[in-house]
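Lab manual, section 2.4: Encoding a predicted structure.

Procedure: take the sequence of the chain (117 residues), apply the prediction step described in section 2.3, and record the output as structure tokens. A sample record is shown.
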Amino acid sequence: MEEYALIMRHEDGMKVASPEQMQIWMKQTMDWIGGIAAQNKFVSGTGLPFADACVVHANKMVTNGPFGEIKETIGGLIIVKAESVEEAAEFAKGCPVLQGEGNTVEVRKVAKRDGTH
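Recorded output:
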């Protein structure tokens, strides 16, 4: 069994949701993760808030936030155990972030600790 990162990308990360909408999304997300955990396939995860963020560029310049000129931001990620990228993609299909137009969940195999694929 391999580990896969499900990376939640938001098309318009600067759009601010109401506290009520955030509560609904959080419950949906916790329920989605709970379903994966019930199958003993959840490894870990975290959200990535926009506050206290910066980008360090190749020239060592530091700019505010994860956004800059891009519209898309990464809102969080979870790591799951799966037999294949197809199984991991099935988990991703249930992610509540996909309710937002243009939002995506990127599925990436996690490299093993010894550096092998």
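Check your result against the sample. The chain has one domain: 2-109.
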